[in-house]
What we know:
By secondary structure, the protein is an alpha+beta fold.
Amino acid sequence: MYVSVFDLTGRTVNRMQPFTVYPNKALIGIQSPGSYFGVNKQLEFRLLAVDQNDRALKNTKVNVRLVRKEWQTVLKKDYSNRYYYASEEKAIVEWDKRMTLKGETPFAFSVKRSGKYELQVSLAGESDYQSSSFYAYGWATSTASSFEVDKEGRVDIIFDREKYSPGDNAKVLFMCPFGGRLLVTVERNGVLHHQYVDVDKRSVEVSLPVKTEYLPNAYITATLFRPHNGDNESPFLVGHGFASMGVEKTSNRLPVRIHAPKRVKPGTTQTVTVTTAAERDVYITLAAVDEGILQITDYETPDPYETMYAKRALQVSAHDLYKFLLPEIVRSSSSTGGGADMLEEMAKKRTNPITTKRFRLFSYWSGIKRSNASGKVTLKLKLPQFNGEARLMAVAYTGERFGSAESRMKVADDIILEPQVPRLLTAGDSLVMPVTVINTTSKRGKVSVALSTEGALKVMSSSKGSVTVPANGTAQLVFRLRAGRVPGKASLRLAATGLGSAAESFDLSIRPQVPFSVETKSGTLKKGSHITLPKPDRYVRGTRSLQLTISAFPAIRFADKLKRLVGYPHGCIEQTVSRAFPQLYLEEVLKLAMPETYRRHSPTYFVNEAIRKVESMQLYDGALGYWPGGNSRSWWGSVYGAHFLVEAKKAGYRVSDDVLNRLLRFLGREARKRETFDYVHYRGTGRTVELKARKEIIYSLYVLALTGKADLSSMNYYRSRQHLLTRDGQYLLAGAYALAGKWNSYHKTIPDLFQAERPARQTGGSFDSELRANAIMLNVLLEVDPSNKQIQDILRWIANRARNMYSTQETAFVMLALGKAARRSAGADLRVAVMVDGKKRATYSGKSLTLSDKDLNGNSLALKASGSGEAYYFWSAEGVKTEGTVEEKDANMRVRRSYYDYRTRKQLSASDFRQGQLVVCNISLTGEGRSIDNIAITDMVPAGFEIENPRLRPSTTVGWKLAHPMNVEYMDVRDDRLILFTSLDGSKTREFLYLLRVVNSGMFIQPPIGAEAMYDPAFHSYHGAEQIRIAPMRIE
C-alpha cells in the first residue's frame, strides 16, 4: 500500500507499507532442520498450523507428502551448433500420509536414496500446499539421475548449513555434469586450501574444515576434468562452479543498548546512557538526528558488524587451458587440429547565488567515547528548538568486535507552531503565510503569536495575532509578507505565548530576478600606459567581488576566459578534462586569477579530482562515457581524456595504468577504422565541403605516439593520402612522427608555412572550431619542435582572436598553448602603480600582483606604467546586480514552457494555480533547421512551486505519453530550478514533462526559461517571464 500524507501546503510525505492477504483460514508452517542431509539419517521436521493472528490451531487435519526428484539428462545442440545439457524433471512420490496437527507437531522420517526432495504439507481437501526442499546424499545410493545437470555444464555446489563457525566441518555436495577428477579449492584473496576428489555418478560429497581465516566468507570453487578416454558422451572437457560459504563468529557482535527518555521537550538537556559488554575502553559513539532528514533517503542505522563482516568478493582469477588443449587430443572425428561533482562545484552561472540554511536541522554527534568498567558511557544531549522525532544511533567497537543500536525520542512543546514557509522567495514576491498552532495539551486556551522579520522581507499585515486552540487540536492565523526588490538574505521569527511558550525561526534566500553577472577588462601595459578602470556599482550588498591582477604572463590577458572555463558548471567528459587540463601548465596564472578558488585547494588537488573522475567514467570496452554514470561513449572525449591522463602522468600525477592501457587499446582499435566524414570549412568568403579522415583518428594516432605506442602502419596510410587530412590533422600526424623519432616523415608532413585552418563550428562530435584547430597546431609544435618559426605566427594569430573564445574546448586548447609558450617567455623591467582615488595603493615591479575588494574599494581606479617591456592586466567585478532584466529573444532555436493540471490535463494560465495543486510542466525545444548538440535548458520555478523530484519519490513521475519526447542526456534537480542537457534535432520540436507541487499562496515572480548551446553562442532562447497568482488551498 502506497500512502501520501499532505500538510497544509500540499507537500507530501510518501511511505510504502506492505500488508498480507490470507487465502485460507489456517496457515501451514514447516520448520526444517537444514537443507542438506545424509541418507538413512533421522530428519526432525516440525509442523504447525496457525490462524491469521499467528495463534496455533489444534486438531488441524493435513496431508503430508514426500516427493523425490529425478532428472533424465540428455545432450542437445542449439541453432549455433553449440552443445548444452537439458534435464527433464520427474517427480516421484515416496509416500503420502494423513495426520492431525495439535499445535507444534514433530514429524520425523528418513530417506534412503540420494537426490533432491520436497516435503509438501496441505490442508485436508485442499490442492495448495506449503513445501520445504532439501538434498540428501550417500555415495552408495547416488545415481546419474539423482541430481539435475546444469544446462551449461557447470558444477552446482550445496552446503549443509547456511553459515558455519570456525572449527566446524562443512559438508559440501558437488553436483556435476559428468564424472571425472574434481579440484576443490577454498579461496578469497588467495588459495587457502585445495584437494582433489574423484567424481562418480555425477555427484560427490566433501567434508571441509572451517578455519578462522575464512571469516566472513570464503569461496568453494570446483574445477572438474573429464578423463580423455575417447568417450564422446559429453562435449564438455572441463566444468566449473563456485559458491560462497558464510562463516560467522557470533562472539564478535557486541551487545549495545541505548537508555533515554521516550518523550521530552525542546530546549532541554537530556541524559543518554549507552551500555555494551561489561568491560573498560570499548569505543562508543552516539548520533541523534531528526527522523525527517533520515526518511528522505530511508537512511538505516549503521551496523558496523554487518559492514566489517559483510560478504567479500572473490579476488582470485581462474585461467583454464584445458578446454583449448584437450579437444585436439581426444578428437575422434578428425586427425587434424581445428581452428561511467564537478557539476555542483562553483555552479554560479545557473544556480541561486544567495544561499541560506532555511531550517536549523537537528543533528548531534558525541564524538568517540570510551566505556567505564561496567561498559557504560553517559552523555548529555542538549536539544535545540525542535519539534519532531529524533533517532538515537549508537555504534560500539573494540578489537574485532562491533555492535550498534537505535532508539527513538519524541521532542514536542506544549504549543507547536507550523508556518507555511517556501524554500525561497524572488525579489518582489508577495507571500500569504498561514501559521498552524498545535495544542498538544489536554487544555483549551488562547495563544498569542508575534511575527518579526529581518533583512529583505517585510510584514504587510499585522505582525501579531491570537487564536483559541482546542485541547489536542489546531487553529490557524494568517500573515502577509513581501520580499524587497533587492535580493539578499532574510529571516523570520515566530513567538507564541499562552498554554506555554514556543518559538520558531527560519532563514530565507531572496533570490534575484536577474542572474549572476561578471564584468571584465584586460589588456597590455607598456611604458606610459594610463588605464582607467570602470567603477563597479549597483551590486547587491555582499555579492560583489572585485579583483585586479597584473602579471608578465600573457595568459592573464584572458583570465576571464580561464575563470569561466575552470568554473564551468557542467560535468561531461569534455568539460571535466577542459576544466583540469590547463591546470597542468598554468598553476601560477590560475592562483593569480582565482585566489578565492585556490585558497583551500591547490591546482594539484583539482587535477587529481579530475583524474579520479575521468577514470570512473571508463566503459566496458575501454572508452570513456560522455556523462558520469551513462553508457554512451564519446570517441573525441576518449582521445581528449587519454591525452590529459598521459600529460598528467608525465607531470608526476598518479594515473591508473590499467585504465590508461585499456583506453589506449580502445584508441588503437578505433584509429584503424579508416573512417571519413564531410568536413565543412571556409576558404575566403566561401563555404566548402570535402571528404576528410575523421579528426578523432588523427588525434588518436598522435596520443598513441605520445605514449610510445605509435601505429606506424596507420600513420603511413594517411601520410600517403594527405588529401584526407585537414590542416590541423597534418600537424597532428607530423607530431606523431616526431614523437616516434621519424624526423624525415615529420618534415615531409608538416606544412612549410602557417596558414590558419577555418572549420565550421561543431557543437558535438569532435567539438571543432577555428580557434581550437589552430591551437592544436600550436600545441603540437610546442611539444615536438619548440624552435619552429611558425610558433610566433600562430601565437600572434591566436592572441588577436582569443577574445572570441566561447566553448570550453577551444578555451582549453588555447590556454594549453599559452601555458606552454609562457615557459619560453623572458621577463621585463616594467613598473605599474595602482591608483585608488588618486593615491598609490600598490606597485607591480615584475612579480605577479593580485589585489581584491579590500585593496580596491574607492570611487576611482587607475593603472600607470613606467619602465621597459610589457605586462598584462586583468580586472573583474562579479556579483548580483540590483537592476536589470533578461532580454527575451529566440536565436536559432525556441524554448517554451507551459503548465497543465495533472488531474484534468487542462492548460493553466498565470492566475489558475491553487495551493496543493499538482502541476505538469511541459518544456518544448524547437530548432530552426540545424541540429545542435549540448543544449543546456534552465527552468527556474516560481517560489510558490516545488519540484517533485522523481529521484526521491519514484511515484511522482508524470506518466503522460509524448509524441516527440526530448532525449535528456543529463538532469540536475535543485530546490528552485531544473537543468536539462539535450540536443536540438533540426526543425523538430521535442518535449519534456516534469511534476511540480503548488505549496504556497501569494503573488510570485516567474523567471524566464532559458536554453543555450554550450559550444555556440549563436544558439540561445529566453522566454516566459511573468507574475503568477496562487490561491489558498480549499479545505473540504
